[in-house]
Structures are given as C-alpha cells and as structure tokens.
Amino acid sequence: MRFSVPGSWFQVRVQVRFGVLGSVFVCSLFGVFALRLDAQQGRTTKDAVYSAAQAKRGEAVYTEKCVACHGAKLDGDLGPPLTGQAFLGIWGGLSLAELVDKVHNTMPLDAPKTLTRPQAIDVVAYVLQGNQAPAGAADLAEAALKQVALDSMRGGPSRPAATPAATTSFPATGTVNQVMRGVLFPSSNVLFDVQTQDPGARTSGTRPEAASTTVRYGDVYQPWQMVDAAAIAIAEAGPMLMIPGRRCENGKPAPVDRADWQQYVQGLVDAGRAAYKASQTRDQATVAEVTNVISDACANCHRVYRDVPTAAGRCTPP
Ligand code: HEC
Ligand code: HEC
Prior knowledge:
- Helix content is about 50%, strand content about 5%.
- The chain has helices spanning about 20-30, 30-40, 50-65, 65-70, 85-90, 95-105, 115-130, 175-195, 215, 225-240, 260-280, 285-305, and strands at about 45, 50, 135, 150.
- α11 runs antiparallel to α12 (about 285-305).
- The longest helix has 22 residues, at about 260-280.
- About 35% of the residues are buried.
- One heme C binds near residues 7, 177 and 188.
C-alpha cells in the first residue's frame, strides 16, 4: 500500500516536524557551518594538537585495521588516500570532530563501530602526522575536537579548481516522471524505511517478502551503505532535473529556466546532502528526522508543478 500509489510515499513520514526532534534537526542542518565557524575561532592542526606518542598508538590501530584499504603510506588503495589534496580538499577547514566521527561511525568499512572512541582519536592523530601536522606535548582529547580545524596544509583553494565546461552533453532520455520513478522515488523510500527499520540492526535467516528495501539489499551492500547511496542519489539528481529539453509526461518542457524551479532543485540537492550527513552518523533517529527535510523538498516543487488540477497543467508556471 505504501509503495503502490505513486506519490503516497510521503504519507509514512514521521510527524516530528513541530516536535522537539524537529527543532533539534533545524540546528543540526547548520552543524557543518557552525563547526567551521567554531574551528575558525579556535585552533588548527598547525598548532601541535596531538602528541607523537598518540600518533604511535594510532599507527598501531591503523596497521591492524586500516592499512589494507588505505595503503601503507596513507596513500590509498581500495579506499581513498588519507593524505594530500584529495583528502585535504574534503576535510580541510572542517573540525576534527567531523573526521573522528567519520572514522568512529563508519570505519573500518567492513566492521564499522568496532573502534573505541580513544582509538578513533588516536588513529586520526596518526593521519594528522601523515599530513605533516606538527606534534606537540599533549594528546588530542575528545573535548578539543570541535575547536580544532583541520588545516588544509598547503593553503590555496581547498578543492581542486573546477574543470572547464564539459564538451560532451548528455541529453535527457526520460520524462520528469521517469526520473522521479527511477531515482527519487526509490531513493527516498530507502530513507523513509529508516523511520521504522534500523539499518544497524542485525538480521539473519530468510527475509520476509515485504522486508524493507534496506533489509532486502542488505546482503549485497551493508544497509547503512544503501542509505548513504540513496541520500547521494537524491543530491546528485539535481543536474538531471536541470537538463534543458527534458519534458514532462504531458509534453511540456521542464521549466529549467525559471528561478523557482532552480530553487526547488537546489532545495532537493541540499536535502540530499543533509541526508548524507545524517546517514554518516549511523544513527536511526537522526536519519528519521532528516526525512522531513526530504519530503518538504519534494513537496515544495510538487505543490507548484505537479499537484495541479489537471495533468495538462503540470510543469507550467503558475
Ligand atoms: C575494507 C576497506 C576499508 C577499511 C578496512 C577501512 N576503510 Fe576507510 N574507507 C574505505 C572506503 C571505500 C572509503 C570511501 C567510502 C566512504 O567514505 O564510505 C573510506 C573512507 C574513509 C575516510 C574518508 C576519506 C575521504 O576522503 O572522504 C576516512 C577518514 C577513513 N576511511 C578512515 C579509515 C580508518 C581510520 C580506518 C581504520 C580504522 C579505515 N578507514 C578502514 C574503505 C576502508
Ligand atoms: C524541481 C521539482 C521537483 C522536485 C524537487 C521533486 N519532484 Fe517529483 N515531480 C515533479 C514533477 C513536475 C512531476 C510530474 C512530472 C511529469 O508529469 O512528467 C513529479 C512527479 C513525481 C512522482 C509521480 C510519478 C508518477 O508516476 O506519476 C513521484 C513519485 C515523485 N515526483 C517523487 C518525488 C520525490 C520522492 C521527490 C523528492 C525526493 C521529488 N519527486 C522531488 C517535480 C519535482
């Protein structure tokens, strides 16, 4: 029933928007920016924020649990490098709390949440050492994590410069409805599943026919990785919805030139990114809260361009 009627997915949303959880979420949405700000006012990894002894302990953890995927010189193998611009471009400027959380919640990829918190901090100290951050007298402590920003070490832009405009273009293949059915509908359902199904809960034996998507595909990918991927699919659907010439089912062109359409697409991308950030916490309640942001992002656009009196009126400016 929940999946059978197109558009009915939003009925399963947990009504927390006006509750305490809802307001907690409003704060956490801005968490990244808040942490960047805190970190700016505080110290950076240039300020000798860990000790050599701590990095040594971290190295032992790394050698046992991380080296197989991240390489003997932290230079990447199956997994991405933990040094250099490829790494600093993502993490430079963020607080060390973000990096320790990433390690503690999601790594080692094949056995997440098996490090203690002190081990996660030690291994991050080792990663800092590998990025030429100076060691000091004292260990990096939990209480300092939010106050210390990861210095991007080399200065300059933290992300690689944008590549020149692509010369290849990818014209639309489907209608807006087909993009919705193929990408946004299944991905948002994976996220909505998290309201009732903890991806971290162990399941074994035969899967019931009606098991949630996260459980059914949990044999192929870890359920939490499915949630990551669903959030990313939503964030990455933005450009698809901006391809000029894509038509709606009634033949009207998707109004990609209109500022309000662009704003709704941006809202969707932002919601997908917020969902990814929530998924990275590996906390069911955090993802359940973010589903409100997702359904709002969908509904904002639908209200104007989909849920109009006649199908012929879809995709036309109000
Ligand atoms: C089985 C392979 C595997 C193991 C073991 C593993 N990782 Fe990872 N790691 C990955 C993959 C793949 C990614 C990229 C996907 C993701 O972020 O989930 C990643 C991402 C990361 C990132 C984010 C890097 C970035 O550029 O975004 C950090 C930090 C990290 N791992 C640290 C660790 C640490 C520390 C350990 C050991 C405690 C560890 N990993 C063990 C495979 C692994
Ligand atoms: C930028 C605008 C926009 C955003 C954002 C948007 N949609 Fe849509 N959606 C539409 C339009 C327009 C249609 C009708 C398209 C058509 O008739 O071809 C539609 C149709 C749909 C349909 C109906 C498909 C059918 O078979 O009738 C579903 C389901 C759907 N959207 C899901 C979602 C979900 C889930 C999200 C959020 C994760 C979302 N949409 C975000 C514009 C949007």
